[in-house]
Amino acid sequence: MNIYQFDVERVNGETLSLSQYKGKVLLIVNTASKCKFTSQFEDLQKLYEEFRDQNFEILGFLCNQFAGQEPGSSIEAAEFCQSTYGVSFPMFGKVNVNGEDAHPLFKYLKEQQPFRGFNENIIQEKLLKLMVLEKTPEWYIGDELKWNFTKFLVDQKGNVVRRYEPTDDIFNIKEDVQRLIRYQNDSAIVS
Questions:
Q1: Looking at domain 3-190, what is its CATH homologous superfamily?
Q2: SS3 assignment for the chain
């Protein structure tokens, strides 16, 4: 099994099969426009611009499960992301990422890349832990996403290879994306 078995909904309600992205490196992100991490859209857009011509896509999934930080419609949220942060990567309709009603894609992502735990030696992670305990304690235990802007890196074959928490440095994500793209390019040369 891989992510290509899943269908998702665009912000306009159209269904799309993730098989459309076969052969590409993907970064799947749950997002919200009123989150303390919303400014990450800037870094994500820069990453997308740098690698989009090298079989790389970012897929943004709107989510309102964390303190109601995506209150409007999916279309309104996507327009906000585009007008405020210049987001040009694909955005998808609101999904639940945790609990019984979690979208099957996110259930699968969490199974493939469980939560690694909080590193309390890093102040941002310690603060995230405290915020989760205060605002959404039901997501504190287990592999549930802890907050918006959790990211999953998917290789060209649809395998989930890494999970990043909202506090993880975009530079580390960029290095991992570069490695996967380089591996893809090296494999093409050998074939």
A1: Glutaredoxin (3.40.30.10)
A2: CCHHHCEEEECCCCEEEHHHHCCCEEEEEEECCCCCCCCHHHHHHHHHHHHHHHCEEEEEEECCCCCCCCCCCHHHHHHHHHHHHCCCCCEECCCCCCCCCCCHHHHHHHHHCCCCCCCCCCHHHHHHHHHHHHHCHHHCCCCCCCCCCCEEEECCCCCEEEEECCCCCHHHHHHHHHHHHHHHHHHHHHC
